[in-house]
Amino acid sequence: GISSTGAQVNQGCSLAFSFARQLSVMFAASTVMAACDPSSAFFGFMGVTSAIVFANLGAAYGTAKSGVGISSMGVMRPDLVMRSIIPVVMAGVLGIYGLITAVIINGKLDTPATYSSYSGYAHLGAGLTVGMSSLAAGLAIGIVGDAGVRANAQQPRLFVGMILILIFAEALGLYGLIVGLVVASTASEKGAGLCTSYAP
Length: 200
What we know:
Distance between the termini: 59 Å
Largest sheet: none
Helix content: over 70%
Mean pLDDT: 87
Strand content: under 5%
Oligomer: single chain
């Protein structure tokens, strides 16, 4: 009886030890970081593309729309053409916003093997933030610039009001630039170490 009881105890201990070993193996496997997804770089490059493309769309619309008004006004008042060129300059600055953001995001893509999904999504969000904000600002600058230079030719006292409206329209793109740069710059720190290199 004693020998059979001892055998049962030994069998129970061995089962407990094997169960504990399996638990430790499962826990160790669950703590191993996964390899980085190679498709994460797609989102980063889409952030670069969206930043420069949408910002240039806004700049192009603002330049074209206000340029039409300047050309129409310049037929009767050619002396006011250089004074009315301000909307074109402010629309061109929107393209610079997109250029700065695209270059900064592209600089963060130098280690594709350890580029995490978090960084890809953050850079996509930063690019869309700057691009769409600049597009909205370009639409406002184009419409205000077109109507403003025509009205300024007939009533010179409207010049200061037109400039103030253009400044606040330009600020929309600046807000997007600030948020986009903050998101893109902090993503490198927060997204580091979330996955291992997929390179062999």
